[in-house]
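Two proteins, back to back. First:
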Amino acid sequence: CFYHDIQHESGTKISKYYLSDNEFNLKEIADNHYYSNNLSANFTLSQNATKRYLKNQLSLNRFWDYETGIIVNPDKLEQKAETPHTSVSNSFDLLIPHKKNFFRIYSTIDYNNSPQKLSFWPGVFVNEINDGESYLKTVQHFTQEELIGQNFLRFTLSRKPWSFDTEVGLKLELQNQRSFIEKDNQILDADSLNNDYRWSSYELYCNENFRYEKGNLRLGIETPFRLLFYEFKDVYHHSFGPSERFLFSPRFWVNYDLNGYWSGSASVRHSKTLGEASQLTQGYIITGYRNMQKRSDKLDDKENFSYSAGLKYKNPVSGFFSSWT
């Protein structure tokens, strides 16, 4: 299918900045246009038989999006953002029942490529880019190419009142991000204004889930183990790896139906995750005519403890439902 859309937005924005000894007023008049063009196609193969369920889907997507805008602040500034995007993905799902048990084989792969361009007339960030002298045009080229995949085998064993899920799989993420800035059609070669990194991550994981259901009581324990191997290579800045990390994020939950109207629930979870590769952009990237930013070379771990408890009331006859958490 093909999708086409045009939007127009105009308005005035007034901002006030309160400083220690005075205040600064900023008035901006904006006139923006948004153009969206999207072509997508899906091809699906499926089979639903007694001995197996099979589904394979191939998706193709192409976007030709861009935005234009004029800002008066009080000088006139024109800007244009071109954000084309190509995506190709395929997913394979096979479910095989065996008595009261199930085998599931799943595989997905997703490729994305987005070569973007951000332009300003006249040039912006004159102090950082042109030693304080005004110039005609700034153009930033930004490209992100990514390949993501996941494959797993899951086995479900049911022995009432217990059920057990075992899932063993592999995840991969390959990413290449590049950016550079042009000043009046001249490429700036300063390392601080360039980015070119490659990120590769491979994750082996095993999820063990145990569930118990009897009468009004339902409880479960989840024990996911993850072993990550990753490497970061940067042409202009600091690189690191190859490295590895072991992560364990258990969870326990319980639900109990007090009667036909009231039920209670509680859960506790400890999770550890690794930061995103996008936080490693060490060269400056322009995100707007007033914003230019860079990140650090550290990949932070995130660790969380979460607890929750809740009480629910439902009365289908009167139509009254309520919950407290």
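And the second protein:
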Amino acid sequence: YLTWRYRLGANSGGQGDLWVLERQGQLLAVVGTEDLQAQWQNHRWTARSTMDIMVEPDLGDIGLGAWLNLSLQNKNADLVLAIGSNPHSFGLVKRLFDELPNRRSFVYPLRFDHLLAKHMPFKAAIRPVAALSQWALKVSRRLLLGSTPNRYRIEAVSHMNPDWRQGLDALLAHPPHPLHLHLQRTAAYLDWRVLQNPKGAGQLWGLWDGKALLAYATTHCQTTANGCTALLISDMSTSLTREAQAMWRPLLRAILDDGQSKGHEYATITSYNHVLDNEFKRIGARQRFNEYETLAYTCSEAVRALMPTPATDWTLNDIHTDRA
């Protein structure tokens, strides 16, 4: 996993570096980073996302995590991001970074077996009631998201090929939405991040018109606490103009139908885009509050003067976290 995520001194491999603090050969702490490129209107910035902060337990109270973060904030990046937190890093993020509104998580049910088993006293009725509920969900998706126009086709792949590489690079070369802070993707990045992930490779989904890729999404399968599986929609096309929404909706429907047919209990997505939020709300997805879905940053004064307002949408998804 480390050789996949980090360069470890090599010129190829990962998309970031693993920084190590040691004393006389003793490992005291490590922090990982991922290299990103950010764009806001005509401004382009090198960005770095902090990940995998680990400190020797006996030294956890002397501020090594804070010191490592502060040292990285001065190492050749215009913008340093802290995407998400946990009970151990929550306070550190609040102290060292400028906070933005939290990211927003949505959950959409795909199956009802386990939910009904917990709350329905008549066990013999669970299976037919669950089947009826799932059929009703599928019908509602068809009504709300529409069907795929005949001229288009939807394809899911687990391995990159030349057509997909060319299609992604052409789609991702389009200028981002002028009112979004954009984290850039490339076909090579999606191949590495989604299809080569040793923690569990995902899938690329695309809506095609001949050889032209019109919209894409990425998905991963996760195991839930009760031993079931969930579908994580980890990235998607983010221009979301009115025309793009019309193309993206049948792609979303195909992904959810496939997840339901494969027995996933629910689908989840974490968004930082209000148009996308509304797309999930309109099909009945429920927003789930999580205080650790944080987003924070630090930057130079020159970049700070150009940063958009905190209410600005970002093209930021779970593909930028270790969840995917």
